[in-house]
Amino acid sequence: MQHSSKGFIPVMLMPFQNDGQIDYPALTGLTEMYLKAGAAGLFANCLSSEMFELSAEERLQSIRHIVDVAGGEVPVVATGTFAGPLTEQADFVKQVYEAGTEAVIVITGLLARPEESEAVFNERFHRLLDWTPGVPLGFYECPEPYKRVLSAGQLGQFVGTGRVTYHKDTCLDIEQIRAKLAATEGHQFGLYDAYMGHAVESLRAGAAGLSCIQGNFFPELIVWLCRNYDNASLRAEVNEVQEFFIKNMGVMHDVYPTVAKYSLKQRGVDISTFTRRKVGNFTSTIRAGVEALYGDYRVLSRHLELVA
Asked: Around Cβ 256, how many Cβ atoms within 10 Å?
């Protein structure tokens, strides 16, 4: 997934009814919200979607629904590897691709155990390539079941096959980002950074865009940053937006994704705060923090002349 301009790829939330079933009308509304905000693509069936708490059929059905709602307006990528033998992972990758995705995302922590070497990971990934002919793939350095960060050399080698088009990076290290960008230069490939702590630096270094949980609170603000990160006349405002995200990182991460769903409810989005994932208690203190955050966002969005 490569765009001439920088793009925001939301890591999509999964709305549930209060009885725990997927809320498809709310999923339609959520998809339309991301599109209206200016998303360049959609990352479905990810950790924010509570993918590990979904059945295989729910994963596929929700991906198809999102692809249908997007209607070709933007590309959709989605996770396709889960626990189990590599043959099963390859089979599900093909099903996710057939659901209409542009690329199928591989969870780095599910191809090799923490104690297994880079060589073991590489061998398994090359087998996965062989068993999924013609399917464009991407990587997600997901924190679950453990975070396995790819080296620049690995990523460069995989992108060089012509099959890897997308990477969601969670290394939190701007120097590693620069090394990965250098190793993949010249290919039809996009690196999307998940870490807002150095978002502006990452965009200026050549990242294709941002793919962060903060976009599930204020997607318009991430889009604005992607569009204006290098605008000399808006340098002060860009710094202000970057600092806003750094200052509020703790509030946005605490009992996530419950907090994101509550924040969207404040904005009038029809979504329950129900989560299948056990993330802790949504206390009155956390609630007050999210409400204060929304107030601060309203002030900032007016200053930037965003539609809030």
From this structure: 20
List all residues 6 or more positions away from 179 whose beta carbon is below 8 Å from its beta carbon. Answer: 152
d(CA 105, CA 279): 24
Pair type for strands 42-44 and 7-8: unpaired
pLDDT tens digits, residue range 82-124?
988 999 999 999 999 999 999 999 999 999 999 999 999 999 9
How many whole angstroms separate alpha carbon 61 and alpha carbon 295?
36
For the residues of 193-214, what is the DSSP string, one character each?
E--GGGHHHHHHHT--EE--GG
Is-contact 43 11, C-beta < 8 A?
yes
3-class secondary structure, 171 = coil
Distances from the Cα of 101 to the Cαs of 95, 97, 110, 207, in angstroms? 10, 5, 20, 22
Average of pLDDT values for 227-232?
95
Tokens 């929304």 sit on residue: 294
Q: Are 195 and 202 in contact (CB under 8 A)?
A: yes
Burial call 18-54: b when 16+ CB within 10 Å, e when fewer: eeeebbeebbebbbebbbebbbbbbbbbbbbbbbbeb
Q: Which residues lie across from 103 on neighbouring strands?
A: 77
Element (H, E) at 79: strand 76-79
Q: Rounded to 5 degrees, what are φ and ψ at 157?
A: -65, -45
Give buried/exposed letters for 277-301 (b at 16+ CB in 10 A, else e): beeeebeeebeebbeebbeebeebb
Q: Both ends of the chain: CA-CA distance in Å?
A: 29
- Does this model's pTM top 0.90? yes
224 within 8 A of 308, measured Cβ to Cβ: no
* pLDDT over 90, % of the chain: 96
